[in-house]
Amino acid sequence: MLAVIILAAGKGTRMKSPLPKVLHLLAGEPLIIHVLETALNLNPQKILVVVGHKAHLVREKVKAYAVELVPQKEQLGTGHAVLICQEALKDFSGAVLVLCGDVPLLSPETLKGLLSLHFREKATVTLLTAELDDPTGYGRIIRDGTGEVVKIVEEKDASSREKEVREVNAGTYVFDKDFLFRALPQLSPENVQKEYYLTDVIALAQRAGKKVVAFKTPFKEEILGINSQRELAQVENLFQQRLRAKFMAEGVSFLQPETVYLERRVRLAPGVVIYPMVSLRGKTFLAEGVVVESHCDLKDVSVGPGSKIRAGSILEGLVIPPATVWPK
User: Fold this and answer.
1) Same domain, 275 and 172
2) Strand pairing class (302-303; 319-320)
3) Pick the catalytic residue: 14, 120, 230, 267?
4) Is 59 a catalytic residue?
5) In a domain, 71, yes or no
6) Do 216 and 109 sit in the same domain of this protein?
């Protein structure tokens, strides 16, 4: 049995935007939707979304999904955010996966690997880690001489020696539900940020003699979180590269790939040819053999096989028949 908690209450002060952080767009969709749809791939029994800053806006974006919203009236840290989910999970028994709503690149395959390790090892806590060339900003994974995870130290609380550690916490965890909610009331805000850190549960588990294991992913870009507009742009660039690579592997030709913008719901058939400076948005579908010339912007457009879209076309909501040159 699996329940998922998605942490989405933060304001995202460093974004310097009136929008809640999780509603910023990546490939045309809010960050929270990317995380939600990844979670749904795991077939959980329950998904909880912790909301706080401008919760009504987040509620509107996720209303089409079978999720339960849990309001966090005061942002007192990640530990507090998970603790307030206790009532919603009172009748649930099993593993609890905690995800961050601002980490949109995590793949279902990575999370399945994390869960598989947790169940195989019969662990109480399993955390996702990665080794970064520049770990600045991330909590560090502290291991003992045998390689066992002892604790996670947030950067603001880390010593100079601990900051040299390059294995970092991805902010993604699997917990045994019963242990989790016994441990959370023991947390203390004795740290630089005066918050209740979910990461402190790892040290509590170790002291209680519980099994703590780590799943280190080789796909370190997957753990990238978004805390600023610069980081959002970096993740957008990675996501666009992923989309273009996927389509090229399926037989789509991009004459100058880095100049083409794609949104997540776009579908392209084999044999499509895309010229430079093209934007494909919404639920646009290009059938086999379609050619889109330069400087086009297509949103929610369906183009039939063998058609050509002339340079400079700006189209929305159209259905273009097969073997058509548009505009005629």
Assistant:
1) no
2) parallel
3) 14
4) no
5) yes
6) yes
